[in-house]
Amino acid sequence: MDKEKIIENRKADHIKICLEKDVEFKKTNGFESYDFEHYALPDINMDEIDLRTRFLGKPFNYPFFITAITGGTVQAEKINKTLAKAAEAIGIGFGLGSQRAMLKDHSLKKTYDVRGVAPSTFIAGNIGAVQLPEYNMEQIDSLVTDLNLDALCIHLNAAQEAVQPEGDTSWEGVADKIKEMSKSTNFPVIAKETGCGISGKTAKLLKDLKVSAIDISGAGGTSWVKVEQYRSNSDMNIFNEWGIPTAQSLIETVQEVDIPVIASGGIRNGLEVAKALAMGASLAGFALPVLKHATKGFESVVAYFEKIADELRTAMFLVNASNLEELRKNTIIKVV
Length: 336
Ligand SMILES: Cc1cc2nc3c(=O)[nH]c(=O)nc-3n(C[C@H](O)[C@H](O)[C@H](O)COP(=O)(O)O)c2cc1C
Fold this sequence. Notes:
Elements: H1 3-20, E1 34-36, E2 53-55, E3 58-60, E4 64-66, H2 74-90, E5 93-95, H3 100-104, E6 123-128, H4 137-145, E7 151-156, H5 158-163, H6 174-184, E8 189-193, H7 200-208, E9 213-215, H8 224-232, H9 246-256, E10 261-264, H10 270-278, E11 283-286, H11 288-294, H12 298-317, H13 324-330, E12 333-335
Parallel strand pairs: 4-5, 4-11, 5-6, 6-7, 7-8, 8-9, 9-10, 10-11
Antiparallel strand pairs: 1-12, 2-3
Helix pairs in contact: 1-8, 2-12, 7-9, 10-12
Bound molecules: flavin mononucleotide.
């Protein structure tokens, strides 16, 4: 089978497995170990709480980001269009899945081309860090410029590659390539994990590599080691729980760097979003639940985010925060 066909089949398998199997970590994202200090006499109107924010220069109605999911197949095109349309209607960010397929076969560009349905949305492209050395700067630039995007996510998926039968495990020179890219592109580069989390040490390295933001994508949600295990029918499960829980990863990352941080990896409700923002995240990111809603259609995605926004507003009311600045600056989070 040629390389394009392998990538296409893999993308289809990933969607099918994520929709049909239990692909989530057994361990939690860690936010249950933190609690807000309840504020018994709020001095604000819950209905007037302002959830607007800005991320890398662009306005968002809500601090939410649909993190990378897919691209490269007919089904992926439909999912990307549904999600981009929903992101535009809600006013949140959207990330395309890995664009490797589009670099291998330019006719697949249309499966990622969502600017038409999301003219004002912050849209990020996506490519694997370990694949970067295969491409020249012109090709990397084209991922963003050909689709009129706002940023490029470089995904770090060492655990997935390590357990994938055909995975890329030669990572020498990848960090240098990220630095070369971050310095020469005129769009922001976001370093992004895929469910194993970023430690303080890695966050510092990424900042030194000049990335503009970090999506920590910690453990507690989708486990890519598990997904790959289903794909290869392997019984090697000792790495299924590998990764830094999202709450711990977030704390370590914001202590180490002052660039914007997206908290993702198993974020499933508005209370977890509130905790992540109070702990220093700029946005909260979601993948698996959004994919499931996308298969039901645009309205289902919009309703999902409306529910998350209501939950976030409720948490903010109970700590007397009338906007996200107040939530971030004046809120006490306790260890329970
Ligand atoms: C079906 C599916 C495909 C994904 N594909 C990509 C990808 O191409 N690039 C990437 O950076 N992350 C990819 N991810 C990872 C997510 O963006 C996210 O980091 C991870 O799933 C953890 O978030 P969650 O627990 O909310 O799913 C994918 C996730 C899912 C569910």
